[in-house]
């Protein structure tokens, strides 16, 4: 609100007057009062000044604290912070933008933040929490296995008797899933709370949990809220109806491969391109997810870029962060701080039921296991699976083709962000990571166009439009592209994208939706995995409760 704009100045003036006229009086609430002057992105931007100021003031604050301990007989163990939180992206996961935003906001609100970074083992999280005498643990993650790792952290906290709140944040999870999955584990007195890290106002939850006068009421309200969500979730399971896998397969999407015969790519095998010019990617950037990072969401009809600039509530702030982004893009490109690499492969392939068999030089080298839609389909709708887009094997031999790709625009981002964070510039670090994500997605879109036009050439009409191309001769034999997988199959660097290419005009994006037990069992058998392991990997799309 406009009337809050000068709260910080008023507080400083009032505090100065009190100090001058009432030297024996102590002033508290400085951070909370001054914070009224900052909103949204400004909190992140102001953190650099705050951190540098704190670094300068710490010696004076420590000296004053020691004097007060002696003079007033205070306990030396008394913490000057509102609370201490240990934050970490869990083992096997590398996504940390939301966690970093929360770390900044909590730090600006007088919480001591111990950030352990990414791919943090459970043992390191527990050890840090004990050593720091933490009031909370915050676990972040995006990929499916991260949920199991968070449950592992919760179990270990219970085993060692660490009864402090555990806050979990992940863009993957849904609230009903976290309630029925983690809380039904009956982790005694531990608070298992689902927090989406990108909701930066949630530091108030931490304040409520550290305040003895509000903690019990907060937990009671939270438990009541989650009990309602759980009951709604269980009721929805009762109402859900599935088509059996056998019937769903009879209703597969039928593609006329005679009318649309497979198109052979211009080369078979793998090719890579390294250090691609980032300037070529700028027209392909989708800006909406960038604004989502900063919690800038316009209301209809101003939700998408560039209409968001017209929104009454967030328009001006969106313009400012967009301007900052343009400046940072120019800097990242001119200083060559980020590198973009990609690998693309085309292989002979044929469908085999719900799976796709992949061949290289006449030899089967891989099987891609598909999942078929079982729910949410009308009577006359197909139950789709990605294998439907590939022509079936003929006498065990392929007569179609499949494309695969992986690309990154984040090579060098992690090292640069560490430099920025060392200089207390959290805003710049988050900005660089957010832009690297956008450039990676733009690279994927750019490559898709190149595949359609130049490398596979199945979109003949589009090739007449005169878009820029990467000539086939610019692609090299694929060796090392500086892309890796973690033990939980997250891509490194974090700003990376991978996927499949299908040439059939019948192919389309679709959601598998929820699946039933019969498909999970069948899928596990085809992959040679146990049902329990398969359920862990597929947990976000299971249409039933897993047996304990």
From TrEMBL:
GO molecular function terms noted in the UniProt entry: cobalamin binding; metal ion binding; methionine synthase activity
Keyword Transferase: yes
A GO term from the CC aspect: cytosol
Cross-referenced Gene3D superfamilies: Cobalamin-binding domain, Dihydropteroate synthase-like, Vitamin B12-dependent methionine synthase, activation domain
One Pfam assignment: Met_synt_B12
GO biological process terms held by the UniProt record: homocysteine metabolic process; methylation; tetrahydrofolate metabolic process
Keywords, in A-Z order: Cobalt, Metal-binding, Methyltransferase, Transferase
Record-linked InterPro entries: Cobalamin-bd (IPR006158), Cobalamin-bd_sf (IPR036724), Dihydropteroate_synth-like_sf (IPR011005), Met_Synthase/Corrinoid (IPR050554), VitB12-dep_Met_synth_activ_dom (IPR004223), VitB12-dep_Met_synth_activ_sf (IPR037010)
Annotated ranges, domain B12-binding: 82-169
Domain AdoMet activation: 236-547
PANTHER family: METHIONINE SYNTHASE (PTHR45833:SF1)
Protein name: Vitamin B12 dependent methionine synthase, activation domain protein
């Amino acid at each position: 609100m406009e009337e809050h704009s000068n709260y910080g100045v008023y507080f400083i003036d009032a505090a100065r007057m009190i100090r001058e006229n009432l030297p024996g009086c102590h002033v508290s609430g400085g951070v909370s009062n001054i914070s009224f002057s900052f909103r949204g992105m400004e909190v992140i931007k102001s953190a650099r000044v705050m951190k540098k100021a704190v670094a300068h003031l710490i010696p004076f604050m420590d000296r004053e604290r020691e004097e007060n301990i002696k003079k007033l007989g205070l306990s030396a163990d008394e913490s000057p912070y509102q609370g201490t939180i240990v934050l970490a992206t869990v083992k096997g996961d590398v996504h940390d933008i939301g966690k970093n935003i929360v770390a900044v906001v909590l730090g600006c609100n007088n919480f001591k933040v111990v950030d352990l970074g990414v791919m943090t083992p459970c043992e390191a999280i527990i050890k840090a929490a004990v050593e720091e005498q933490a009031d909370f643990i915050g676990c972040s993650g995006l990929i499916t296995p991260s949920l199991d790792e968070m449950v592992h952290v919760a179990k270990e906290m219970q085993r060692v008797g660490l009864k402090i709140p555990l806050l979990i944040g992940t863009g993957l999870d849904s609230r009903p899933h976290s309630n029925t999955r983690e809380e039904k584990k009956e982790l005694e007195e531990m608070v298992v709370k689902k927090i989406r890290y990108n909701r930066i106002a949630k530091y108030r939850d931490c304040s409520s949990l550290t305040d003895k006068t509000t903690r019990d009421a907060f937990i009671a309200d939270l438990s009541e809220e989650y009990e309602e969500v759980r009951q709604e979730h269980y009721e929805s399971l009762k109402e859900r109806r599935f088509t059996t896998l056998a019937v769903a397969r009879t209703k597969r999407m039928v593609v006329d491969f005679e009318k649309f015969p497979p198109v052979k790519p211009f080369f078979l095998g793998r090719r890579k391109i390294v250090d691609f010019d980032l300037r070529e990617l700028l027209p392909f950037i989708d800006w909406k997810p960038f604004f989502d990072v900063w919690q800038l969401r316009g209301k209809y009809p101003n939700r998408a870029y560039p209409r968001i600039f017209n929104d009454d509530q967030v328009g001006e702030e969106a313009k400012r962060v967009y301007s900052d982004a343009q400046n940072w893009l120019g800097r990242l490109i001119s200083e060559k701080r980020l590198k973009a690499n990609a690998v693309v492969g085309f292989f002979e392939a044929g469908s085999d039921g719900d799976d796709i068999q992949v061949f290289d030089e006449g030899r089967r080298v891989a099987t891609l296991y598909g999942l078929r839609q079982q729910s949410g389909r009308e009577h006359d709708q197909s139950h789709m699976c990605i294998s439907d887009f590939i022509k079936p094997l003929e006498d065990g031999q392929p007569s179609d083709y499949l494309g695969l790709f992986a690309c990154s625009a984040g090579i060098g981002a992690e090292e640069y962000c560490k430099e920025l964070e060392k200089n207390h510039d959290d805003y710049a670090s988050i900005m660089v990571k957010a832009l690297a994500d956008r450039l990676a997605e733009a690279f994927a879109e750019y490559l898709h166009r190149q595949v359609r036009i130049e490398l596979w050439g199945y979109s003949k009409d589009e090739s007449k439009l005169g878009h820029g191309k990467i000539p086939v001769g610019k692609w090299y034999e694929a060796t090392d592209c500086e892309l890796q997988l973690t033990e939980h199959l997250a891509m490194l660097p974090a700003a990376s994208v991978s996927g499949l290419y299908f040439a059939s005009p019948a192919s389309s994006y679709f959601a598998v939706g929820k699946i039933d037990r019969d498909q999970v069992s069948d899928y596990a058998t085809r992959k040679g995995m146990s049902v329990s392991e398969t359920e862990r990997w597929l947990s976000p799309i299971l249409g039933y409760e897993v047996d304990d």
